[in-house]
Amino acid sequence: MTRSKYRQQNAKRIKAKEYGMKALGHVHPEHDYIVARQERYIAAWKSGSPDKIMAFMDSKELHYSVPAMGHEGLSHSATKELFAKNVSGFHDLDIKTRSLHGHKHFTTWEWTLTCKGGVGSNGERLSIEDASPKEMIGCNLMWWNNDDKIIRNHEYGQLIE
Q: Using an 8 Å Cβ cutoff, are 92 and 116 in contact?
């Protein structure tokens, strides 16, 4: 059986709301725990509040990286500044999980993000009516401590044209 044919057959078995290995019939004991935690993290992003997002970040050990934007090993304060700038640039932010793998201390999270861009080409703030739709796909590698705080994050994303 070809790899393509195998994927097509298995795709029919996977339900839309099942993430990661659970969809393939393999359930890590911490699967439900990491899904629930990730849903809380997504809700913080959707809130548009940098403080709610930063509640998931360890204030002392955080190293946050977004290589595509040229950000490597940002501290807690630098990450908060980045989030404050980024979340103010969106209207109608929505994040969907495509897959989530891992355990309590390390997860890989594949996502899609849709929004309307709230900042124009000259840096001006756009109304929701004037904003154009945007879509991104990406993946985060996330290391978590015992307090469910992110201590290291590597984010990789790409704008879909």
A: yes
